[in-house]
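Notebook entry, cofactor series.
This is the third protein in the set we're modelling with a bound small molecule. For this one the ligand is 2-acetamido-2-deoxy-beta-D-glucopyranose. I'm keeping the input format identical across the series so the outputs can be compared line by line later. Sequence and SMILES below, as received.
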Amino acid sequence: MRRATILVLLIALSSVIAPLPLEALNVRGHLLKSKTFLSPAFFLHPGSVSNKFYYDVPFPRGHLALKSFNAEVVDENGVPVPLHDTYLHHWVVEPYYALKNSDSADVQKLPKGIIARNSGVCKKTLGQYYGLGSETRHTATWVPDPYGIEIGNPEKPPEGYEEKWLINVHAIDTRGAIDKLGCTECKCDLYNMTIDEYGRKLPKDYIGGLYCCYDETQCKVKEGFNGELRKLFLRYTVTWLDWSDAVVPVKIYIFDVTDTSPPDEKSGTACKVEYQVEECSPENRAKNECIDVKVTKEVIPCGGDIVFGVAHQHSGGIGASLHGQDGRLLCASIPSYGKGEEAGNEDNYIVGMSTCYPKPGSVKVSDGEVLTVVSNYSSDRQHTGVMGLLYILVAEQEQPAPKPALCFSFPVPCKLNKIINMVHAPFLAILMLILRICRVLTDMADEQSLNVQVGPEEDDA
Ligand SMILES: *[C@@H]1O[C@H](CO)[C@@H](O)[C@H](O)[C@H]1NC(C)=O
Ligand SMILES: *[C@@H]1O[C@H](CO)[C@@H](O)[C@H](O)[C@H]1NC(C)=O
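Returned structure with ligand:
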């Protein structure tokens, strides 16, 4: 038996954590690591809301490839809390660049933190790397091999800054609520809310959504209902590999069905995140057509292979999908609803979203392609504050990068491609020649490095 075939898996598998996909065990000799953390505690009493941002949360450090992020709400004994007690509206996790030595006088004018957004198209919202809601217990986040989300690259933070992580957890306690669904849909009347968090008057037609269930707000509970104050945590498990040339980087895009600006005027500021589903008309109800279909178009700046996709919807959701310019289906993601009482199977709540894992190379999008986002809800009744988000991972590069980085790797990244396209043709010809020579040299270097490759392709033990 070769020494290199010994795989050390530092996976803390416990009965409460969903088992990793089988694929996770095939890591080509690279060390897959996993660690479980707790967010800072948050406190909820019946009907109350917590929507807090936690900065500099515990997270794996170093230049890494993220492979999965799973989370759930637990109490102080580590017991999973069901959604009908504490509704997990959402959690998001996002890196940011924090100013080092922020006390010293010469950096006083610099921002203390700069958000490191994903590659997505919404400029002000939805910049997260991962984010889910009630569906978190049964929604796969595994990034398939050989792909990974690159984090902790020491070259990335601006001078004087370092990468840190923030988590936002929005949870609504609905113990004793007079209308549990109404509280989770942030109906303004249940929160007795006419102004938002910043004292601005809400529009008359705004009857529910995030402006009415911000941090420390209170939803109506039954007279005389008593429930103890609960101390809760978001427990999250991160799985990762050390970054290496064997990992193909992926970009994160989130498309929002509420971004209704026309494709040629996309500025990315029209992502409203939430929308309202009106109850269907009596005519449609008679025809059994109580479905609300919301559609928008989005432009993906840089194309590549879609290697993962998932949607985010709220209760009432019946599926969302993403389509290419020619109408072809890129990914459809369907919610599953719980049928019981226990955490992970709560009746009438979305407890999981189906995911897309296309065969590598089989689902491609091109630079600047106009995509269509579709989000379907049941309009059997009205719904406020619902969402229709499509999250995809795109690999711009098909193969692992050539090992010694003598020059550019092929194919040329999308952004660079665009610059090259603007350059005058004769110059382009010379550039292509240089690239070709580089390619030959890189290939030669690659062949030599094969002999010193660490780790086997297959476990032949
Ligand atoms: C609702 O809000 C109004 C005005 O902000 C306040 O006067 C009233 O007492 C509130 N009602 C309840 C039940 O909290
Ligand atoms: C959304 O609804 C439309 C119209 O009923 C249907 O054709 C489509 O397949 C639905 N898509 C998903 C993902 O559920």
